[in-house]
Amino acid sequence: MLDFPGELLSYIVPFLLVLTAVVTIHELGHYWAARSFGVAIDEFSIGFGRAIARWTDKRGVEWRIGWLPLGGYVSFSGDANAASMPDQEALERFRAEVQAREGKGAERRYFHFKPVWQRAVVVAAGPFANFVLSVTIFTLLVAVFGQSVHRPQVAAVQPGSAAERAGFRPGDVITEVNGRKVDDFRDVQSTVALRAGTPITFVVRRGGREVELVGTPERVTQPNPIGGGVSEVGVLGLSSQGGGGRHRVDPFTALSIGIKQTAGVLENSLTYIGRIIQGRESGKELSGPLGIAKASGSIAEAGAQGGRTLGEKALGIGYALLTLIAILSVGIGFLNLLPIPVLDGGHLAFYAYEAVARRPLSARLQTASYRVGLALLLSLMLFVTWNDLQRLQVFQSLAGLFS
């Protein structure tokens, strides 16, 4: 149970560090792409609210650090439209205003008058930066600390489990899962955890020959040491031989692993959302800000526990939080690519329409779509926040304060 509010406060600092890092990199993606196309930029802010520090660079961009570290934003010149997508009539009015104020041709500096493909690149650069951040972090962690490998060899099969019914035996080496090569037992675990009640095809090496097995993970409820509360996951009933230690790798191998790990996080996200759409999952495992805050604090605490000296504890916390940043960065990048108005994916959908129709979507349709998109986003936030409150047993904690 969450010791509310005392324990919650201990998670705020790591949560703010994680969130600000991910969102700032996202906004920097937009910034660098816009700058490369000569887009006029007014402001770049790290954090929100009153500025505790600000300066202006030689390009006239004001850089500021807000007192509330909950992300950040980049502001393009003339981008006052809430949708960032003015219709044709609004564009013409804006063009006339700019030309009257700055002269003919000055409008070409502004985001809305850039070619549609350039605007699309600027918008897509935010999620792309998130994926790059994830690859970079995973690559650096492997390059510095080495690769940790858990050989996919079965050490034991739990009696009466789904694995026993599937025909697994101690000593089997799992080589393929659903047609994909595997060389780490953790890859097997992540695949199984996300597919409760769904048959999975395995290929194992047994006594010099290959054997195909089909196992259906059972859905079990178990404590979630990171997110708090309990989680429902798929389990086969296998245990491995344990870790194989860490091995140094060359930079190219580290990059390959970084890309693979980022792709794995994205694939797991797509798999889980796909199962929600198919009705195979309830969505109870989705987390919002409270869940991320809890995970941030728990991961930082776990990282500190692995060290004996202050330096080792700091190193453990850094490693753990960097891993969380990499995972969360993939999630933020993926979420923003969804074709929902108010998100980057919604802008990209509008630009696709503009590229085909040769004109922006009408103001009326834009307004309606943004209202729908905002409603969907708010509904999602309410849903994941309710999940967090239930998982962290906040209501029970509050009740205890007044009992």
Order of helices and strands: HHEEHHEEHEEHEEEEEEHHHHHH
C-alpha termini separation:
16 Å
**Quick check: average pLDDT?**
84
Q: How many H/I helices?
A: 12
Q: Give me the Rg, rounded.
A: 25 Å
What kind of oligomer do you see?
single chain
Helix content: 40-55%
The strand count comes to: 12
Protein structure class:
alpha+beta
Percent range for β-strand residues: 15-25%
Question: Main sheet, how many strands, which sense, barrel?
Answer: 4 strands, antiparallel
Low-pLDDT stretches: 395-403
| Bulk shape | elongated
Write out the strand line-up for the largest beta sheet, numbering strands in chain order: 6-5-7-8
Task: Summarize the structure in words.
This protein has helices at residues 6-9, 12-36, 88-102, 116-145, 162-166, 185-193, 251-277, 289-305, 310-337, 344-357, 363-391, 394-401, and strands spanning 41-56, 62-76, 147-150, 154-157, 173-177, 180-181, 200-206, 209-215, 218-223, 230-235, 238-240, 243-247. It has 403 residues and is an alpha+beta fold. Among the domains are: 6-118 and 339-401, no CATH class; 148-247, Pdz3 Domain (Roll). The chain has a 4-stranded antiparallel beta sheet with strand order 6-5-7-8. The protein starts with 5 loop residues before the first helix and ends with a helix. The model is unreliable at 395-403 (pLDDT under 50).
